[in-house]
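Follow-up to my earlier ticket, as requested here are the two runs.
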Amino acid sequence: MSRSLLQPPEPAQIWTVSRLNREARFALEQGFPALWIEGEISNLARPASGHLYFSLKDESAQVRCAMFRPQQRNLGFRPENGEKVLVRARVGLYEARGEFQLKVEAMEPAGVGALQRAFEALKQKLAAEGLFDEAIKRPLPAMPRRIGVVTSPTGAAIRDIITTLGRRYPMGEVIVYPVPVQGDGAAEKIAAMLSTAGRREECDVILLARGGGSLEDLWSFNEEVVARAIRACPIPVVAGVGHEVDFTIADFAADYRAPTPTGAAEAVSPDSTEWVQWLRQREQRLERAINARLQQSRERVTTLQRRLSLRHPGQYLQQQAQRLDELERRAGRIIRRRLNDEYRRLNHLRERLQLASPAVGLDRSKQRLQELRQRMIRAMERRCGQQRQKLGALARTLHTVSPLATLERGYAIVESPDGGIIRNADQLMAGDEIRARLARGRVSAHVIEVQREDESQ
């Protein structure tokens, strides 16, 4: 290795970690616009600060996310682990730890915005083709002889239209082109009926109408086939779909958009307020132009705000708030671990104290005394048993030599009246009274004859 490669770099060429992370954050935030991302929530945390921290994952990857408290004002639901969501977020970097993360600005459950996104995508596509340009929109006839209505023959919209036309323009004829206004195949049938009405050329203007409903209910009027059929129709088309707040692709493609079916009937029926309506149309055109200019200004302001936010103190405060939440979680873990250690130490001391307690020694002494008492009782019983056996043996021996045993064999003890024992016939004479003691009981008798030993020989 050459000597030049070992020379240290200039101080200005050495970056700190903080500078590296800061520059990486700037590069990420400037390099990516706000993105819509769909995924599943996991590792959700709600610290006391009110911010939300979680991971957004799919089958093969995940990314850390932070949604700060101010961005949660328009959150219409409570996010939970395992829930699939769609978030609008900006790519960033948590400088304190060098972690890649998303800063979430908006969130909604996945699937809720699918139709809206499809609506916006088709709207942008057709607008790019010039299908919504004001230049190609045809003027409405001032006094139409016949008015065609493409709608359901049984809905509320046709009743409102007929009532309004009868009140404002009774001389006008109404031709109803019946179609289903929602459900499978409704869009194709609406497009086919518009084609039929244009081919017949029976009327001077066509009202495309239906009553209000959800975005799903109005979806037949958001299909591309309907928009193209409106523009292909040679007769001016007025769209009166839903309520005033409802906008469909058909509204943008039509020559005139009315807020309701009743408004569509009013738009094609002249009356004493015709000039007021003309002024209102001009006002609407001016409003659209102003809105377009305002939209451009908003985009310009958004760009400037994004550039400003990279150096705004609030950005630093967000970083510090996230750092504070992380330190709070670490402090909580340390405190819980310290408390657990103290609890274990306290339990150990309590066990030692119980072992050293006089009550424990007293219990042991009582147990020892009880054991000694049991041993003494067993020893006494054993000794008494031995003495009983010995006494029984002596009793049997004594019984063997006892006079009573002799009496049991049929002998008797002869006594004189004064209680002396008669052992020799010389102690008696004929006529003496004697007593004989038997094994059981006594008898008294008189001596009839005395036979001495020498006489008996």
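Run two:
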Amino acid sequence: MTHAASPASPRICDDSVLVEVRGRAGHLTLNRPKALNALNHIMARRIDDALTEWEHDPRIDSVVISGAGERGLCAGGDIRSIHDDARSGGMASAEFWYDEYRLNARIARYPKPYVALMDGIVMGGGVGISAHGSVRVATERSRIAMPETGIGFVPDVGGTWLLSRAPGELGTHLALTGAPVGAADARLCGLVDHFVPSSRLPAVLDALADTTANEAVGLYATEPPTGELADQRDWIDSCYSADTVEEIVRRLLDTGVAAAKEAAGTIFTKSPTALKVTLAALRSARELGSLERVLEQEYRIACTALSSPDLVEGIRAQVVDKDRDPRWSPPTLAEVTDADVARFFAPLGRRELSFAPDETAEELGEQP
């Protein structure tokens, strides 16, 4: 399978993403509320089409993305479809990720304000289409997470880039445990910028019609309720700075702190292979220097996971059969070798995701 950038894909016409213009703002509404707005390939292409249409339109000052329904912006990718694809040995998921990851990078570099209303549940792929935006808004209902290790996968959509840049080892804690955070902790970790009570979101949307993005949000932004992570930094930074998952767990259990022991228990329920690959990916992301380089790495990891047993088993246990009893292979951290981990980072040859030089952060002047 040889990839090329896809500039001229046919225009996608369906109602899974509602596209409209209100005044000087372009609005994207994820419209699968019964599926908690889970993202699929058509939706990713629909968003990309709209961004292309609006990028050079002088009538559009900003882009706004939100989710239909009351439960959240987006619960992530359509993992049941990924499960079926992986079981059949297909490549539809790899094709989806290829376009999705390029969309994530595009959002991060979009030349107009990109306002993400991260109300309710925002997980996995939902983080990818929101947390790379330039104006990120959380509410008291926000629950933001990268829970991939629980399904035998690794934080993707630029998640390892975002979490690797969180203060201290907060990102490592969130990546390994998959723990969700509210508005204050998400802001502390660099995943959101502003807190707006959910009751004020309609007013923000109205203001965006004729006001700049920062002014519209600023009119209604306030301080969020107190979070938890700031008071837990000491044990989180001390424990998660270890070089191996085994040592992280040992430190967590030895702290004598109840929250640390609980975190260790949570980690023990996750895929051992996914945990070790996630830690390696986070450490590498700190050194790679740009979102694009990290997305290239995540694509290698994701494509390898597609043919690994834990992804199918994890989705089966959590989503398909819902027995919450995954049988990981290998079943313990000690049995996951360095070679097992290295396999996820191996080049894909002609199937690589790669960004042209003029698409990289270095060319755009971003500092690592």
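The only thing I checked on run two: The two ends are 32 Å apart (CA to CA). Let me know what else you need.
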